[in-house]
Amino acid sequence: MTAHRRLCLVLGDQLSFDLASLQGLDKERDSVLLVEVMEEARHVPHHPQKIALVFSAMRHFAEALRQAGTQVHYVTLDDPQNTGSVPSELRRWQSLLQPDELHITECGDWRLEQSIRTCGLAIEWHRDSRFLCSRAEFADWAADKKQLRMEFFYREMRRKNRILLNGDGSPVGGAWNFDADNRKPLPKGVRPPAPARFPPDTLTQEVLALVAEHFSSHYGTLANFDYPVTHADAQALWDYFLDWGLAAFGDYQDAMASDEPFLFHARISAALNIGLLDVRQLCSDVEAAYWSGNIALNAAEGFIRQLIGWREYVRGVYWLRMPDYADGNAFGNTRSLPEFYWTGATRMNCMRQAINQSLEHAYAHHIQRLMVTGNFALLAGIAPPQICEWYLAIYMDAFEWVELPNTLGMVMHADGGYLGSKPYCASGQYIKRMSDYCRTCAYKVSESTTEDACPFNALYWHFLMRHADLLRGNHRMGMVYKNLDRLTETKQQALWQRGQSLLARLDEGESF
Ligand code: SF4
Fold first, then answer.
1. Does residue 142 share a domain with residue 65?
2. Same domain for 317 and 457?
3. Considering its fold, how many domains does the chain have in total?
4. CATH of the domain at 87
5. Do 22 and 150 reside in the same domain of the chain?
6. Distance from the CA of 427 to the center of ligand 1, in angstroms?
7. Closest ligand 1 atom, residue 442 Cα
8. What DSSP string describes 325-342?
9. For position 444, which CATH number holds?
10. Which CATH number belongs to the domain containing residue 155 in this structure?
11. Contact, 346 vs 354, CB < 8 A?
12. Which of 370, 365, 407 lies closest to 390, judged by CA?
């Protein structure tokens, strides 16, 4: 028998053929290991569709590797030999195969990487070259800065990767950022394309049955699973977006509309985060669409900023600051996450829409996450670990490296402004401007202190008043504090009282 040279572990979010640790495999002497483990599926109550996505994509990836002649060891969740965690499976297979070398590409999540690094095995680690900016490069960039800001990081990334630049290195269109053009509400009569659907094949149906059996207690439905689980289908989803979504993505990327969960969004983040799509190719396709005149600059720039700006920036912050970053709680929040986050049972239409579609599709777009469910959690003073767990559990694309900085830093400002320069707090007026939710809501967005007033309004002013010590000095909050100061003392007291009463109801476990 040929001696076993190399065993390469591939994790559920590393399903890329060009993964660093998969390069140079000897098909005779090397093999690949993939394991479905309960610890990863249960460490938070992941949405059943997310578990199905990862397991099904892993099985399809294993099949594709086998067809290419690679030896694959695959451990299913219900395999009686399955020991339930990545480190324990790694030890079991090390002892079974006795390979000369164990190879792993660095993990997305700190928790998992620590558990593997401390499992007592000698491992050759590879840099995750699927990201444009390595952990070390980000640390170098951050080293001499008093304050990190995504915008400056993003410009560096544009320059370094020569994306949307003129010949002299200046940004195309004369500016780096066209975000101001990307905040239009959806006009009446404009409707998004029907979402691309990918009905489950036999392998996915087997996974759906497995997930239904083991994870029925997790929040969220499996019924609507139609997400791509192969590279080819992920590419088809991307092509569909290029044809039907991208041109309008820029203008309406912040818009929200009742019963329209996807609008002009690509829905590719989950496929990208597990390795079914390649960020360089996505950037190149978007840039090509711009240069060919098919899309406006604000659409191209806005999309590319998400990919090489925010996505790479939050990963850099995560790896620079973990594990302490997860403990951030700048406002000292202690309130429990209301039960309606898990059920959608609330009379606030914006929250009901955002939560129900999250339970139904494991998806909400960034403004629903930031300015509806996130905004409410910020205003209500929810304890950061609880809201972070909710985001990590409920969204198909949520892995901790991307979820934690987005939730703890951007949504909750719990890192004290390390990641973003100001809290994204807003009253119901913002939601009214960017959506049609308020038209059919049980609450009145024009009211702030009456019993049927929009809860976001009083909670917004209450938030500003209770954290004035921390926020008044922030130059980006100057205008909102001027607005607060313009209110009469009587009005301020009424807003405070209404805010107190809403928060007390949350503490009683009431929904509203
Ligand atoms: Fe949301 Fe307030 Fe509008 Fe109702 S009125 S949809 S609670 S913002």
1. no
2. no
3. 3
4. 3.40.50.620
5. no
6. 9
7. 4
8. GGG--TT---BPPPTHHH
9. 1.10.579.10
10. 1.25.40.80
11. no
12. 407
User: Looking at the structure, do residues 107 and 86 belong to the same domain, yes or no?
Assistant: yes
Shared domain for 106 and 182, answered yes or no, is: no
DSSP assignment letter at 43: T
CA angle 348, 262, 445 (to 5 degrees): 25
> Last residue of a domain, which of 126, 160, 189?
126
Give nearest CA residue, ligand 1 atom 3: 438
In angstroms, what is the span from residue 492 Cα to ligand 1's centroid? Answer: 21
pLDDT at residue 2 greater than cutoff 80:
no
Q: Which atom of ligand 1 is nearest to the CA of 444?
A: 5
- Can you tell me which atom of ligand 1 is nearest the CA of 431? 8
Q: Using a 6 Å cutoff on CB, does residue 437 contact ligand 1?
A: yes
Give the residue whose CA is nearest to atom 8 of ligand 1.
Answer: 428
Distance 76 CA to ligand 1 centre (A): 45
At 353-412, the pLDDT tens digits run 999 999 999 999 999 999 999 999 999 999 999 999 999 999 999 999 999 999 999 999
Three-point CA angle 275, 372, 359, nearest 5°: 55
- The proportion of the chain whose per-residue pLDDT surpasses 70, expressed as a percent, equals 99
Do 173 and 309 fall within a single domain?
A: yes
Same domain, 159 and 286: yes
Q: Does the C-beta of 388 come closer than 6 Å to ligand 1?
A: no
- C-beta neighbour count of 298 within 10 angstroms: 20
Q: Indicate the helix (H) or strand (E) that contains 350.
A: helix 349-361
Residues 358 and 432 in one domain: yes
Assigned token pair, 42: 């249960």
Q: Is the CB of 350 under 6 A from ligand 1?
A: yes
Q: Give the C-alpha distances (Å, rounded to integers) separating 302 from 5, 253, 398, 404, 411.
A: 46, 9, 21, 22, 20
Give the model confidence (pLDDT) of 119-138 as tens digits.
999 999 999 999 999 999 99
Among 289, 321, 353, give the residue marking a domain's end. Answer: 321
Examine residue 398 and state whether it is found in any structural domain, yes or no.
yes
- Residues 151, 154, 159, 163: is their CA dihedral positive or negative? negative
Task: Give the residue numbers spanning the domain of 144.
Answer: 135-198+229-321
pLDDT digits 0-9 by tens, 446-467? 999 999 999 999 999 999 999 9
pLDDT tens-digit profile of 148-179? 999 999 999 999 999 999 999 999 999 999 98
